[in-house]
Specification:
- By secondary structure, this protein is an alpha/beta fold.
- The chain is 44% helix and 20% strand.
- The protein is built from nine helices and ten strands.
- It has helices spanning 15-31, 59-82, 95-106, 129-136, 166-180, 195-214, 229-240, 262-269, 281-295; strands at 6-10, 34-42, 86-93, 110-114, 141-144, 155-160, 183-190, 219-225, 244-248, 275-278.
- The protein has a ten-stranded mixed sheet with strand order 3-2-1-4-5-10-9-6-7-8, sandwiched between helices.
- Helix 8 links the parallel strand 9 (244-248) and strand 10.
- Helix 3 crosses helix 4 and helix 7 packs parallel to helix 8.
- It is globular and about 65 Å long.
């Protein structure tokens, strides 16, 4: 069973990020974990527009210092009120990459990040911060809706597609299920009915649900076949009044460097429920190898 001991939360002091902090605090208490707060100054925002004459010398350092003091005060308030060990970090750079690198350096078990308002036009674009973090990070990423605070997860929806990584998802959420006393609804979903894929998916789901029963976890399951997988998941979460959706993060591999898969994006953007995004292990290895290759100078 995975143990959640270090949770990283990007903070920009918005309502959305404060909701994420609230969720992370509750999780830290349940899992006896340490809280890591990070603020990143987006250096792209510091680049002057053409025609502007703004001196940047020392500006970045000054901003980092001031925000670091603000973040430390915020952390002290949390530590005093909640009795948690709380660390702070303030840096600058490309925000999703900085978050991903910090999570790796800390050996974080989970990143908790605030989402955007589901009606925001920016959610239609692949460039919003939460999804770039999902794309960059090796760790699971929990996206907390901008419109609500999530303190506990009692009713978990776990969609399963023919990717068949249900064992990885279940292994990660076992402590979440246990600490919350949660029930789980497993939704087998595929674009179309294919006997071989259906049987393979059915076998894995049945085995997982049986294992949940052995550990006294209330569990149900059903299947959906159709082209609108994300819509089916969203609709099921509403009917179940789920307070957490656990999905596999997938990408269109032909343009993987730029776009997160529409399935992942649609579920997280169009739902008022927290979404936990978990990469399949083989994709984590691929991403790690790619990052290492980018860091290693080519030999001439």
């Amino acid at each position: 069973m995975n143990i959640i001991k270090n949770i990283l939360v990007p903070v920009n002091f918005s309502k959305s990020s404060k909701n994420a902090v609230t969720t992370a605090i509750a999780m830290c208490k349940r899992h006896d974990a340490e809280l890591h707060l990070m603020h990143i100054i987006d250096t792209e925002q510091l680049i002057p527009t053409a025609g502007m004459n703004i001196p940047l010398t020392g500006l970045e350092d000054k901003m980092i210092y001031e925000l670091n003091q603000k973040l430390k005060q915020y952390a002290q308030e949390i530590s005093s009120a909640e009795g948690l060990v709380c660390h702070t970090y303030c840096d600058s750079g490309f925000v999703p990459y900085a978050i991903s690198e910090k999570a790796k350096a800390l050996n974080a078990d989970l990143i908790v990040i605030g989402g955007r308002n589901k009606n925001s036009v920016s959610n239609l674009l692949p460039g919003n911060t939460a999804y770039n973090v999902v794309k960059q990070a090796l760790q699971p990423v929990l996206i907390v809706p901008a419109t609500s605070k999530s303190i506990s997860f009692k009713n978990i929806l776990m969609p399963v597609r023919p990717i068949l990584n249900i064992a990885e998802k279940y292994e990660f959420i076992k402590p979440i299920i246990k600490k919350n006393g949660a029930s789980v609804f497993v939704l087998g979903a595929a674009n179309e009915y294919q006997p071989q894929k259906y049987q393979a998916m059915k076998n894995v789901i049945s085995k997982t649900v049986e294992d949940m029963g052995k550990h006294n976890v209330p569990a149900e399951h059903e299947y959906y076949f159709g082209s609108k997988l994300a819509d089916a998941v969203i609709e099921k979460s509403k009917k179940l009044r789920a307070d957490l959706i656990v999905i596999t993060t997938t990408f269109n591999r032909s343009i993987k460097q730029f776009f997160v898969g529409s399935y992942t994006r649609k579920i997280a953007n169009n739902n008022s429920t927290p979404v936990l995004c978990i990469k399949p292990y083989n994709m984590v290895l691929e991403d790690y190898d790619m990052k290492m290759q980018l860091k290693t100078p080519a030999l001439s």
